[in-house]
Design goal:
three-stranded mixed sheet; mainly alpha; 17 helices; two-stranded parallel sheet; 64% helix
């Protein structure tokens, strides 16, 4: 496939539609605010009811993060000012500093699937050779990080609540300022909501919603780049188009989950052209056989990805610790 052909294919989907963008803000933010009201009311009835409502609110927060994500790609509005404004607002709601995260995510798009350029905006993944050569302490740390409890519960909670509050001085003034302004905004938002419903009620609602949304978001990111048949390559042979179409999954979700996740399951298309707004990804898929050739990963099949731990360069596949143990018992 010539590069010109795919660029022509995606070009007509890259123009944001103001009405679609505004409607997505309305049908996401209004229900989210309404659910906060219902959750605050439900605290006087049953906290189990609050948590049930929090599951839906967490789904909406994932959708808000997709809007934040699109603003970072300058794909949600034609206006850069509008993208930055709504990127800041959605960044407050998702506890994510916009400039820092957008820069890190741009690095991810530029290096996904490149074995020689790992470590920025991705999930720590070692090759079999690296794992076998490293120290016992590092192997223990790696196994801990790759444990599902840490990877999808503890890790996301720590990252969104604490890690993203710390300005990265080496990242430069602009990104540090973004983190500081986001922290100030989160504090102001917390104080305002606490004044309305009380600080205890605020914490009882905010924490479960944020933690569940963070866990779901990290799971989505994981499945999009850690799946059976994924493409990873060393720098000399790494190819952008191949990485997008074969190194990023088509996660075929039920319609309701596709709505909550802002069509991000069409990740192969998104990585090929991040300037396509999320609300045009499905249309791009349906109208172009090129993208339909990618084998989808269903919700049920995606859980197979939980066993993947290491990249086997020799056989060009992700393997589990159990498979490594079978080949090399000393590395159990």
């Amino acid at each position: 496939m010539k590069s010109l052909s795919w660029k022509e294919t995606v070009a007509k989907y890259q123009r944001p539609h103001l009405g679609r963008s505004i409607w997505q803000l309305v049908n996401t933010l209004v229900p989210y605010v309404a659910l906060w009201y219902l959750m605050s009311w439900s605290l006087s009835v049953s906290y189990w009811l609050t948590l049930a409502l929090a599951v839906v609110a967490a789904g909406l927060l994932v959708r808000i993060f997709i809007i934040f994500h699109d603003c970072g790609h300058l794909s949600f509005f034609k206006s850069q000012r509008a993208n930055r404004f709504w990127g800041f607002i959605t960044g407050l709601l998702t506890f994510t500093p916009h400039d820092y995260w957008w820069h890190e995510h741009a690095e991810h798009h530029a290096s996904a699937g490149n074995l020689d350029n790992r470590g920025i905006g991705d999930i720590w993944t070692m090759t079999v050779g690296e794992y076998m050569k490293t120290s016992r302490k590092t192997r223990l740390c790696y196994r801990l990080v790759r444990n599902p409890l840490c990877l999808f519960v503890i890790g996301p909670a720590f990252m969104f609540i604490f890690a993203r509050r710390i300005p990265k001085l080496k990242a430069g003034w602009k990104k540090c300022r973004s983190t500081v302004l986001t922290n100030v905004g989160i504090l102001a938002m917390g104080v305002l909501v606490s004044a309305l419903i009380g600080w205890k009620a605020y914490m009882l609602i905010q924490l479960p919603v944020l933690i569940m949304a963070a866990s779901a978001g990290v799971w989505l990111f994981y499945v999009q780049h850690q799946f059976e048949g994924v493409y990873w390559e060393r720098k000399p042979g790494w190819d952008y188009v191949t990485e997008a179409l074969q190194g990023s999954s088509y996660y075929k979700l039920p319609a309701i989950l596709q709505w909550f996740t802002g069509n991000i399951g069409f990740h192969h298309i998104h990585h090929l052209s991040p300037r396509i707004p999320n609300y045009f990804l499905e249309r791009c898929y349906n109208e172009n056989p090129l993208f339909q050739q990618i084998k989808p990963i269903t919700l049920f099949a995606s859980f197979k990805s939980l066993r993947f731990r290491l990249w086997d360069e020799q056989n060009r596949q992700l393997i589990s610790f159990r498979e490594l143990k079978q080949r090399n018992p000393q590395f159990a």
